[in-house]
Design a protein that fits this description.
single chain, 383 residues, alpha+beta, Beta-lactamase, three-stranded antiparallel β-sheet, 9 helices, 29% helix, 13% strand, globular
Length: 383
């Protein structure tokens, strides 16, 4: 037992040393990264070449421009070291549309396995799609260009972008045709997307994600869960969209692991869990700014959407989604100000979760200003 304690103490000390040395060694990309074991290694901002006072200023700005949850569920990780944390980063709750980035990650795994491609047709796995949506492919679902509408998609109060409680029953009237011609951010389409992925996988996508991603990167199963619609044609279908309370439930601490995996282009401690090519493609702009918007209630605009990740692309008005952030920044985002930013240029992951959407959504301009202030805190001219 004493030997085990000595070994554990040595491992913790060694990880702290690695965290301290990473930036000074001039590391880039994965070369300077450390990875959490059971817990994250915490380090001072200065040990990661970040000015504490300027970082505090950035965090204060975000707090003052957020709702009631402020920065309580804020996590900032650089080089794999946690340099800032809020007071409530272990609080577990739903993250709404941030779920979509988990869903598309399952697509990436199935493509890696040779079980699907972006051009796989939904009708080949869901015969009910054949009559009205025969040319809808997986690439259309993951870029919000499918035009799929479900029965029951009529607006419910202020919720109008695909609120159907029967998302697996196709409507005879599409949002637009042909697929790929327009962009419409639509929740029932994402739930049908998850249904297709479930058929291809032959198991609930939560089980696939847990086995291939969550468990290998050490996500605590007690601190994350994936809501579902129950059994559909014999298999449990997890929510692909994040609506109807069938979203990912997770804490900020655990979500940061998912971001750190993507920061390292799908590799964790030397093991490639999902292909780097998928990570690169998923987090890059896949919907050009010139793409027409296909429905008045669609969320967001073309020019900044990848494969269910938001990218810091240039919109039709010529501005970036998050002014002040590096061009390579991307994010998984959901209602109630649940957001996770990955900034490869800074080797950084920033998670801000909350339940304060009723206080107002944090706009892109605010996040852009916050990220710009974080950039000013990085020492050594890396901004």
């Amino acid at each position: 037992m004493a030997d085990c304690l000595v070994l554990a103490s040595f491992s913790t000390t060694l990880l702290a040393v690695v965290c301290a040395l990473a930036p000074s060694a001039g590391a880039r990309a994965a070369e300077g990264m450390v990875f959490p074991g059971k817990g994250w290694q915490e380090a001072s901002p200065e040990s990661q070449s970040v000015d504490s006072a300027k970082l505090n200023s950035a965090v204060t700005y975000l707090k003052e421009n957020s709702g009631r949850d402020g920065v309580n569920e804020l996590v900032i990780v650089r080089n794999g070291c946690m340099i800032r944390k809020g007071s409530n980063i272990d609080k577990m709750h739903g993250v709404w549309s941030l779920t979509k980035s988990f869903t598309s990650t399952v697509l990436g795994l199935l493509i890696d396995d040779g079980k699907a491609s972006l051009d796989t047709l939904a009708k080949d796995h869901l015969p009910g799609m054949a009559e009205h949506y025969r040319t809808v492919a997986l690439r259309h679902f993951t870029t919000m260009t499918s035009g799929y509408r479900a029965k029951g998609d009529e607006p419910r109060g202020g919720y109008a972008h695909g609120p159907s409680k029967t998302p697996f029953t196709p409507s005879s009237t599409a949002l637009f045709t042909p697929p790929g011609s327009k962009y419409a951010y639509w929740d029932s389409a994402m739930n049908q997307f998850a249904n297709v992925l479930t058929r291809i996988a032959g198991e609930p996508i939560e089980e696939l994600f847990a086995r291939r991603i969550a468990d290998p990167i050490g996500m605590d199963r007690a601190k994350w869960d994936w809501g579902d619609f129950g059994e559909v044609d014999g298999i449990v279908v997890n929510g692909g969209s994040g609506n109807s309370n069938n979203h990912i439930f997770i804490s900020a601490r655990e979500l940061a692991r998912f971001g750190h995996l993507f920061l390292n282009r799908g590799k964790w401690k030397g093991r490639q869990l999902i292909s780097a090519s998928w990570v690169d493609a998923a987090t890059s702009v896949q919907v050009p700014a010139s793409t027409p918007v296909g429905h008045e209630y669609s969320v967001g605009r073309p020019g900044a959407y990848g494969y269910n990740w938001w990218a810091n692309g240039i919109k039709a008005d010529g501005t970036r989604k998050w002014p002040g952030a590096p061009a390579g920044t991307y994010a998984a985002s959901g209602y109630n100000n649940n957001d996770m930013f990955v900034i490869p240029e800074w080797r950084m992951v920033i998670v801000r979760l909350g339940l304060d959407g009723k206080d107002g959504n944090i706009p892109d301009a605010t996040y852009g200003a916050f990220l710009g202030k974080v950039g000013q805190a990085i020492m050594g001219g890396e901004t």
